[in-house]
Amino acid sequence: MDQDIIRGYWPLYEDGAPVRIGDRIMGTFDPMTVESVTVYPNTTNVRSTPDVAGTRDHLHLSPGERVKRVGDAPEGVPCLGTGPDGDIGTCILEEDHQTWHIVIDGVRYGVGNYARRAIAEALDLTTSRKTLPSGIAWPEVDGEPVVPGDTLWDDEGFMINVTGVEFKGDGYCVLHVFNEHIRNVACTVDTTSKCFPTLTRTEPETVLDRDGVPIEVGDTVWHEADGTELHVIGFQHEEDGERIVTVERVRGPIDWDGCRCLSLSHVRPDSWERLAEDARNGLCDYWSCHDARCVDCPATVDGKDPAQRYGTDSCAHAMAVDIVARAKALAGVVGDE
Question: Which helix (H) or strand (E) holds 59?
């Protein structure tokens, strides 16, 4: 576990001690009780429990910013503090600088933050070496702490971008994650285990369709068996060396759930129904060239537009030749049969 990484995120008091869930600290204007801590790339958000009116306070701490304790010594009480020469002595501190107290010979004294640090260091009790308070375990993936900005993958091949890590006082933390298919999802982990067994830092191997084209979540593909149009929503385990792709039917005769990757294609298969439908279309519908200049023909293949591919004098004649060629392929006709 990289302690320096964690130390940069977790909120600390002015004396270096870690803030604990349930602590009473100074909020934006008034004292607040810490309910949760969420770390983001450039800020740490400390959230309070709701007050009697149901409102919450939030502290947005910039990197290195420390948290003030709530003073428990009455105003005007002599407090231990550091003088101009660095010596520890008693003095009167303003209320927002009074933090905690000690009792010496039956006399109660407030103790300032800097005096507390000096006392703790002198007694070798400093807590600045403790990066996390008790009861909080930082989550790990593949033995490394998870921090905002990390890229992870789950067991279905989803790429997950970590935007924040939230800690609560009930034994678990939450990862705030984002990707183009899953937005603002919260992954929960029991902090006693400190790890997400279904997440990894290793990018999964690319899943290819039967034509060797990479399959990604969100793609539209077609099944080789009957031409069912499918939408890719995830990935599963492997069977006989093929990755099972989780899909949902867009249209088609069969409602597929999981398909072998090599049974899928990004190229829509031809059919008699599709051929009949296309034959009724106009020229621009057939070649999908509405609002396109001929020099930018969308039906260009290997640098040749339809007329050039079929050796015709126009794309209209090329359409007729293409329909015949498709019909022969569907009928299994080879050559000039």
Answer: strand 58-61
pTM: 0.54
The predicted pLDDT at position 191 comes to 45
DSSP of 227-244, one letter per residue?
--EEEEEEEEEEETTEEE
Q: Where are the beta strands (DSSP E) in 83-201?
A: 88-92, 100-104, 107-111, 140-141, 144-145, 151-153, 159-168, 172-178, 183-190
pLDDT for res 335: 67
User: What confidence tens digit (pLDDT) does each residue in 162-191 have?
Assistant: 888 888 766 566 777 665 444 344 444 444
Block means of pLDDT (10 residues each) for the chain, 337 residues, are 66 80 86 89 90 86 84 61 66 58 66 68 55 74 84 76 79 63 45 60 86 89 86 83 86 80 88 84 86 84 87 90 86 72
User: CA separation (Å) from 157 to 179, 210, 235, 248?
Assistant: 12, 19, 6, 17
Number of other CB atoms surrounding residue 295 within 10 Å: 7
Judge contact between 113 and 93, C-beta under 8 A.
no
Question: What does the DSSP 8-state code read for residue 304?
Answer: B
Helix then strand then coil, % of the chain, to nearest 5: 20, 35, 50
- Comparing C-alpha atoms, which of 68, 90, 70 is closest to residue 17? 68
Q: How many residues does the chain have?
A: 337
The structure tokens listed for 38 are: 């969420």
Tell me how many degrees the CA angle 139-41-62 measures, rounded to the nearest 5.
115
